[in-house]
Description:
Blueprint (H helix, E strand, L loop, with lengths): L3 H18 L5 E13 L8 E8 L7 E6 L2 E12 L4 E7 L8 E12 L2 E12 L7 E7 L7
Antiparallel strand pairs: 1-2, 1-8, 2-3, 3-4, 4-5, 5-6, 6-7, 7-8
Amino acid sequence: xxxxxxxxxxxxxxxxxxxxxxxxxxxxxxxxxxxxxxxxxxxxxxxxxxxxxxxxxxxxxxxxxxxxxxxxxxxxxxxxxxxxxxxxxxxxxxxxxxxxxxxxxxxxxxxxxxxxxxxxxxxxxxxxxxxxxxxxxxxxxxxxxxxx
Length: 148
């Protein structure tokens, strides 16, 4: 049973990523090639990733897309919080919440201090309920294609 668990997890994750990646919104808000500052478990060995914010309608980002290795994850932006110091925090998760124990979330801090736009992000991916073996990744980069 334990040997099958990783295969089931991989198939579940692949199905979720494929389903969500085919329905990406068309209007790009901003994107960046991000440098991997640290990574664990499933993200180990990565040096770069791409991160983008997109909109379905209006001018508020609704989707965050992460490209890493040969995979793409499209997540739904759940919260957006702006502070007075020029930092906006975005939190995105799988659109279905936590289907079958699968977790994938991204915290993105977008800073616009001193007219310099920078992004920092924390990515967490896992399966099950405790989270002790979750893959994590810390990213930083400079966004381009900002919709003003």
